[in-house]
Each structure stands twice: as structure tokens, then as C-alpha cells.
Amino acid sequence: MARIGVYLAHPRPGSFNHAVFDAVVRELRDRGGDVIAHDLCAEGFAPGLTADETETVRPATGAPDAQLAAHRAEVATLDALVFVHPNWWGMPPAVLTGWVQRVLVPGVAYKLGTSDGEPQGLLKAGRALVLNTSDTPADRETSEFGDPLNSIWSACVLPYVGVTDVRRTVFRTVTDSSDETRASWLREARDQAAALLA
Q1: What is the rounded CA–CA span in Å between residue 177 and residue 36?
Q2: Closest CA to 89 of 38, 43, 40, 152
Q3: How many Å apart are CA 45 and CA 158, to the nearest integer?
Q4: Which residues 6+ apart lie within 8 Å of 142 measured at CB?
Q5: How many CB atoms lie within 10 A of CB 95?
């Protein structure tokens, strides 16, 4: 049975991101996945790094709190990761950026011999799915901004920690979408989640 971590980063209950998160968690569980679901905002995950957490080469020592220690221990056991979040200023929300910086640390998610060396990814998870919402049309996102979220997840973060199969879907534009469109997006999110188990 695949063990999958699903992470939601959106502070407003009832948002479409919450609907995507719920649909993905339900689909994976219905298909027999061992799903660990985290609504990072509802859980009050603290995104701010402490000075002691800024090491990039030496393995992280103790976590400053039990919640962070649990996330670090848990991520090492996962077979796949799912991230659900909006595109805010070309970045994930602060809570998820902080989760990446505080959880995917040396000795947990990667090993780095020197600051200018090549990382060795340590995560067991070989697959990841990123589901984004956006109010920026696709052509503008690409032509004006270069799709920064794609670079963040597919080039900067996930390959660094050993995830080689990175899948990403963007639902856009959300603000003016119809109920029928949103229903079709939820079906697509479930299909994408199911494909992680294939």
C-alpha cells in the first residue's frame, strides 16, 4: 500500500483549494492509499525559520518543536507527495514555503557534501503531484512570468530531494469559473491522484 502525504496551503475554509484537497484525499483513500493529510494553515504550521535552522550542509539536529519533528519523520516514510495550493505572486503561500524550508532539511530530505556540491536526494518518494489554482491566464503566465511555480517545484525543490517524477496541473482561471467547470476540475484532480497509484 502506497503511503502518500497530501499537503494543503490555503487559509480560507471553503476555498476551491480545500475542495481539491478533499477530493484528492478521498480518491486516494478509496483506492487503498495510506494517506496522511495535512491542512497546514488549520494545523497552525509555523513557517518561520529559526537561526538554528538555516544550515544547508550539516544534517539538521533536533527540531525545535514536536510538530516539526513529526513532519520531518513522516516525510521520510512517504512513497508520494501531493501539494495543493494557489499561485500567489508566482509563489506558494508562505505556510508551504516555510514547510519546504523547515521540513526538507539536510539529513532528512537531502545530503550535501559541500555548499557548492551536487545534492543527493534522500526522500523515498519518487513521485509528486502539484495541483495549483490561478487567476492568471496560461499564455500570460508563460509569456510574462515564465511560469515560476513550474520552476520552483520541477527544477528547484523536488528533484533536489530525490523526486524524479513531478506532475503538475493548474486550474485556471478560478474566480470566473462556473460550477460545471469546477466540477470537471475536481474530476481531473481525482484522476491525477489516482494516476499516482498506477
Answers
A1: 30
A2: 152
A3: 20
A4: none
A5: 21
> Measured between alpha carbons, how far is 60 from 45 in angstroms, rounded to an integer?
19
Residues near 128 by beta carbon (within 8 Å), at least 6 away in sequence:
80, 81, 82, 83, 153, 158, 163, 165, 166, 167
The overall pTM is greater than 0.90: yes
C-alpha atoms less than 13 angstroms from C-alpha of 143 in its C-beta half-sphere: 5
H or E stretch covering 149:
helix 148-151
Cell 500567489 sits on residue: 88
pLDDT tens-digit profile of 75-127? 999 999 999 999 999 899 999 999 999 999 999 999 987 777 788 999 999 99
Element (H, E) at 166: strand 165-172
Take residue 61 and report the three cell numbers written for it: 539536529
By CB atoms closer than 10 A (0-12, 13-18, 19+), residue 3 is middle
Please tell me the total number of residues recorded for the chain in this structure: 198
